[in-house]
Design brief:
Distance between the termini of chain A: 39 Å
CATH superfamily of the largest domain in chain B: NADH:ubiquinone oxidoreductase-like, 20kDa subunit
Number of domains of chain B: 2
Strand content of chain A: 15-25%
Number of helices of chain B: 10
Number of domains of chain A: 1
Largest sheet of chain A: 4 strands, mixed
Radius of gyration of chain B: 20 Å
CATH architecture of the largest domain in chain B: 3-Layer(aba) Sandwich
Helix content of chain B: 25-40%
Number of helices of chain A: 14
Shape of chain B: globular
Shape of chain A: globular
Strand order of the largest sheet of chain A: 8-7-6-9
Largest interface: A-B, 57 and 55 residues
Number of strands of chain B: 7
CATH topology of chain A: Cytochrome-c3 Hydrogenase, chain B
Structural class of chain A: alpha+beta
Strand order of the largest sheet of chain B: 4-3-5-6-7
CATH class of the largest domain in chain B: Alpha Beta
Distance between the termini of chain B: 50 Å
CATH class of chain A: Mainly Alpha
Oligomer: heterodimer
Amino acid sequence: MRVDIDVRHLARIEGHGNIVVRIADGDLKEARWDVVETPRFFEVMLKGKHFSAAGILAARICGICSISHCLTAVRATERAFGVTVPDAAARLRLLAKHGETIQSHVLHFFFLAAPDFLGLSSAIPLVEADPEVLQRALRLKGLANRLCDAVAGRTTHPVAFQPGGVSMVPEKRVLSAIRNELEDGLDDLHATARLLATFEIPDFERETEFVALRGEREYPFIGGRLVSSDGVERAENEYLEMTNEAVVAGNTSKWSSLSRESYAVGPLARCNLNFELLHPEARQIAANLGLAPLCHNPFMAHVARLVECVHCAHEAIRLVDEIVSSGDEPAMVAVAPVAGEGVGAVEAPRGILFHHYRYGGDGRIESANCVVPTAQNNGNIHRDLPDFVRQMVESGVNDDQRLELLCSMLVRSYDPCLSCSVH
Amino acid sequence: MKYLGIDSVRPRIAVFELTGCEGCELQLANKEETLAAFLDAVEVVNFREISSSSSDDYDIAFVDGAVSRADEVERLEVIREHAKVLVALGSCACFGGVSRLKNAFDLNEANREVYGDRPQETLPVRAVSEVVAVDLEIPGCPVSKDEVERIVQHLIWDVPYHFPAYPVCLECKQRYTVCTYEVGLLCLGPITRAGCNAPCPAGGLGCWGCRGPAVEANAEEFLTTVHERGFTNDEIAERMSFFGGFEGLLP
């Protein structure tokens, strides 16, 4: 048996990465995942910037999860200066996070992943082939984007988040209207779960270490302790002991490792490590679709994303109710810069994200470090590939085209964001 | 798509990305209420981020991102050969965007700081028009999908599109945003090209000039007024450099 797979710039993912698989005389000679995205050197560009510019610049690391990057930069800055934001601001930030999580997950499910399971090259043919599914996708994505617009001031590259709190408070009547949309959105998410149940999820497992924030009372999104499924636990400030980044040949993205050669972050890691904190309805959907911790099949991240959408929709409804019934409390406190450093950890849609800044007494950044979810996943994707190819070949897959599609689907199951990972 | 029984011309469009966050091409999949109609009005033949089928036979190429590596120069030259119309999409493609901030640093040192003893290939950031001829530039970080939709309609009709000549200030007035200067913050709204509907001043951020200079910007009067309000040339120049759109106009 001979296989030569050489995918340059894999489609339906964010950014540029290549898959190479070679089988000769029945032996697997090579199976690689290489990230070739152009580096932008954000850690260098952040140097010298005033604290008020940190979140605005950091947001530009990613066009999909800019709210997460902005909030992580702002959190790192606030922790460096010893600032605690008012509850009103914390609620609005979390509400924007939920909007971003739903937006990102829905985009991935319908536009990047579903075409593989539906035998299409993209979601565009759905305009004619299945307008009902397309309309459902657009309703869900539209609702999530309107939530981000209302709370973050814009869906991509938010304008409302500054060190000290939020600089724009949405009108309560706007939030109430979005609350109604969220209720309808839950129906659309249940319909999406029924569609997902018809997808043929590849049967593949590789024992993996998962890393995520650990929630105490709530499913985690902003700040908290860092945990791994192999039993490692660290404080937010000790993120370097979790991430252990290394530069690898042929890759512009760094790779991470902890107890093993690589680890995974993202919706599956979060579900695996915080399952009992999910909303009961989200857990029910997980059960219906066969997701239970610890799950070692990376393709089950598709289920985890949908489960998180249901959780986030419920949480967003709860937050809107809280905000609407609260008084007009201040959402911003004054910020006085001091020399020092701070680490921010946030669960971005694709996994745990760290920003670390050292500030001078003038409130300008002296050094910066960003450890991004997909950079943590890239090594794990690479290590999944050979095992996956072997298991697929053993199960009878023997033509290049099918194997190439399956390998592409494996990479897409991580929803990689390569611009982000290289930054 | 038919209107009054007449078939419209569906231009074949392609979308490519160079150095950037791909946020501008993501906007093409936003504005969900009209997305189905948008996808019906054009034929998307090459858009790697959302489609695994691709063709080199296209009329309009949208290029998102700046140029910062040799392979991007090669890709861009091929795109220019194939495209009848090449559109620079977003501030990175138009001016270099925030990526241009890199050019203020020594690139060898930057490489050492990020990649240690395994440096990666990187060139000073350039706008798309510094590498190939560009037919139309749509600035913004990110671009406004509203504006992109209007521009695509003009491309279909073969009628020139005119960007607003006035600055962002006018759009703040239209949406009743309290002037950023009234709350004591710096704002580039008086000299920046409108068309974004001014989300940043409304969000309490002031304008950072992502769309570059307005046609009718009165830079001299702007500087006088901003100096009177206590802002220094250094602060103004730093803000004007953020997205790279005011090169050559800094105080």
